[in-house]
Amino acid sequence: MAEYNYPSEVGTDITAKVAADLASGDFMFVGTDPASADPWSTKYSEIRDAITANPGGAIGSGTAATGLTVEGAVSLTGDSSLIGDVLVQDPTEASGGLTLQTATASSGALTGATDTIEVNIPSGSYLFACQLRVDVAVTDDAGDDTWSAEYNDGASLQSIVSGAAAAQNTKVNAFHDPNANTPVTDAETDIVLTPNGGNFSAGEITAVVYYLTLTSLDDVSGE
């Protein structure tokens, strides 16, 4: 490995190391552990591959983590994918926060005049959107087989879809309409399914609900 030394404004030299096994376009991060005289080095390609292979894990470590925390401003350019809950906090206060969350649940085998997908959206949440998918074709004992869905907290809040098709892999994508009903829940909220004829006799539907929650600011420390 070749070394190139450059003077540094902070009083120590910066060492750039070029490894013989670096692929074209790759580069290496080099630093020194303050507690040790031994330098460390990490290839960009190794960091990239670690993120790709273990997007929910800790970078540069074999220990799995639950996510990646980035302090400071984050800019995403182009198409980006975020999997799991997303928490936004004020960088000065560093407490409280607004979280975009998802709740996923299945109806199980559909029966009766109504059935419920228990997504358990908590009171005080801001309903944002819902996606539904027919996993097992829906049937009812009247032969209509179409179905409807609504947000419900013990009373009907807002329709999600009406007269949806019965076939497997039928999909529904619906934003909550804040102009029609308040999007803020005042009780635990689920999705109620209703057959458009008679009673459900078969079928299964999966739901994903997207919603926002607020976390309170931390207490002020005592004097």
Question: Could you explain the architecture of this structure?
Answer:
It contains 1 helix and 13 strands, in the order ββββαβββββββββ. It has 2 domains: 67 residues, no CATH class; 117 residues, Jelly Rolls (Sandwich). It is mainly β. The strands form 4 sheets. It has a 5-stranded antiparallel β-sheet, with no helix packed on it. The chain has a 4-stranded antiparallel β-sheet with strand order 7-12-9-10, with no helix packed on it. A two-stranded antiparallel ribbon has the order 1-2. Helix content is 4%, strand content 44%. About 4% of the residues have low confidence.
Topology summary:
Elements: E1 2-6, E2 14-18, E3 28-32, E4 39-43, H1 44-53, E5 86-88, E6 97-106, E7 115-121, E8 126-140, E9 147-152, E10 156-164, E11 171-175, E12 189-195, E13 200-215
Antiparallel strand pairs: 1-2, 3-4, 5-6, 6-13, 7-12, 8-11, 8-13, 9-10, 9-12
Instruction: Identify the strand order in the major beta sheet.
Output: 5-6-13-8-11
Q: Class by helix and strand content?
A: mainly beta
The outline comes out as: flat
Number of alpha- plus pi-helical segments: 1
Descriptive keywords:
2 domains; mainly beta; four-stranded antiparallel β-sheet; five-stranded antiparallel β-sheet; Jelly Rolls
Give a quick precis of the structure.
Helix content is 4%, strand content 44%. With 223 residues, the protein is mainly beta.
